[in-house]
Write a structure and sequence with these properties.
- The chain is 40% helix and 14% strand.
- It is α/β, with parallel strands linked by helices.
C-alpha cells in the first residue's frame, strides 16, 4: 500500500483542527478506560482517601445522569470545539423555527461510526445551536454504561450528554414549561455496523420506543438527517450473516456497545488510521411533527405516529439531498 504523507507546510490552523479531532477520537475510544485505570490506581495509592470520597460522591450523585445531567456552558464553548467543527466542517441547518414553549424529541439519523455530527452540533456551541434555536436546551442521549465510569461521567455530562435510560428521556420530554430537546440516535449501536461511505440504510422500522415516549409526554417529534455522517470512515466488510458480523452482534448483545472495525486517515499521513476524513457534515433539522399527549398510547397510536415520522424523515431527506451531492436516484432504505 502506497502511503500518502501530509505536506510539511500545513497552516497552523489546520494542525490545530487535526489536534482537536485527535483528542475527540481519544476521548471516544480510550478516555473512559484511562479514567477507570486512574481511579483504580488512586484507590491503591496513598491518596486512597480521595478515591473513597469520590466514590461517596458517585453514590450521592448517581441520579444526575438521568435528571438532566450537569452541563457546563464553559466547557461547551471551549475553543477546541471550534477547531473540531472546522476540521470537517460541520454545519447545522434550521428549516423552521421551533417554539421554546414545547419540549422536543430529535430523531438523529444516521448514527454513523462515532456520531460526530450529533456531538459537534448538540454537545458544543461551535455550530451556534443557542443562536439558531433560542430558548431550547439540547441533551444528547448516550448508553447508561458510560455514566458509571469515574471521572469520565462528569466530563461527558459537561457537554450535555445524559443517560439514554427511559427515565432520563422522560425527564427531558416532560420538562415543565418546555424548552428541552432530547436528541436520540434512533438507529443506535447496530446501525453503526452499517456506517460506510454511500450507506443510506437506517434502522428505524422496529424502533418505536421514542415514538411511545413522545406520545406519553406530548413532546413534538423532529426528524434530523446528518448528510455526510457516513462518509467519515471506511469499515471492514461485514455483510449480514458473515463471521465478523456475527461476532460484532454477539459482542453488542453482551456489552451493549457495537464494535465497528473502522479506519480512515492518520495524523501525519492520509492512507490509514483512526482519524475521520475531512468530509463536510450538514445536519438538517426538519419540521416538527405535532404530538397529542396520550398517557397510555395504544399500539395503533404508536404505529400511526411512527408512520408519520418515517414519512417526515423521508421527505426531509428528499428535499435536501440535492444540496449535498446525493444523486436523485438515491433514496433512504428503512430496515
Amino acid at each position: 500500500m502506497k502511503i500518502e504523507f501530509a505536506p510539511l507546510n500545513i497552516p497552523l490552523r489546520r494542525r490545530l483542527q487535526t489536534a482537536s479531532v485527535v483528542q475527540w477520537v481519544f476521548s471516544f475510544l480510550a478516555l473512559a478506560q484511562c479514567c477507570l485505570a486512574g481511579f483504580i490506581l488512586l484507590c491503591l495509592s496513598r491518596w486512597w482517601l480521595l478515591a473513597a470520597l469520590y466514590a461517596g460522591w458517585l453514590y450521592l450523585d448517581r441520579d444526575t445522569p438521568t435528571t438532566g445531567g450537569r452541563r457546563s456552558q464553559w466547557v461547551r464553548r471551549w475553543a477546541i470545539w471550534q477547531y473540531f467543527h472546522d476540521y470537517f466542517p460541520i454545519s447545522l441547518i434550521k428549516t423552521v423555527d421551533l417554539d421554546p414553549k414545547h419540549n422536543y424529541l430529535f430523531g438523529f439519523h444516521p448514527h454513523g461510526v462515532l456520531v460526530a455530527g450529533a456531538f459537534g452540533n448538540f454537545c458544543t456551541e461551535a455550530s451556534g445551536f443557542a443562536t439558531l434555536f433560542p430558548g431550547l436546551t439540547p441533551y444528547l442521549l448516550m448508553l447508561p454504561f458510560w455514566f458509571r465510569v469515574p471521572f469520565f461521567r462528569d466530563y461527558i455530562m459537561c457537554g450535555g450528554l445524559v443517560s439514554s435510560e427511559k427515565s432520563s428521556a422522560s425527564y427531558i420530554a416532560s420538562h415543565p414549561g418546555g424548552g428541552h430537546v432530547a436528541v436520540v440516535a434512533v438507529g443506535g449501536a447496530p446501525e453503526s455496523l452499517e456506517a460506510r461511505p454511500g450507506a443510506l440504510t437506517l434502522q428505524v422500522l422496529k424502533r418505536k420506543g421514542f415514538i411511545k415516549l413522545a406520545l406519553k409526554h406530548g413532546a413534538q417529534l423532529v426528524p434530523v438527517f446528518s448528510f455526510g455522517e457516513n462518509e467519515l470512515f471506511d469499515q471492514m466488510e461485514n455483510p449480514a450473516g458473515s463471521p465478523l458480523r456475527r461476532v460484532q452482534e454477539s459482542l453488542q448483545k453482551v456489552m451493549g456497545v457495537a464494535l465497528p472495525l473502522f479506519h480512515a486517515r492518520g495524523v501525519f499521513q492520509y492512507s490509514f488510521g483512526l482519524l475521520p476524513y475531512r468530509k463536510p457534515i450538514h445536519t438538517v433539522v426538519g419540521r416538527p411533527i405535532p404530538v397529542v399527549q396520550t398517557p397510555s398510547p395504544s399500539r395503533e397510536d404508536i404505529d400511526a405516529l411512527h408512520k408519520l415520522y418515517m414519512e417526515g424523515l423521508g421527505q426531509l431527506f428528499e428535499e435536501h439531498k440535492g444540496n449535498y451531492g446525493i444523486p436523485e436516484d438515491k433514496h433512504l432504505t428503512f430496515i
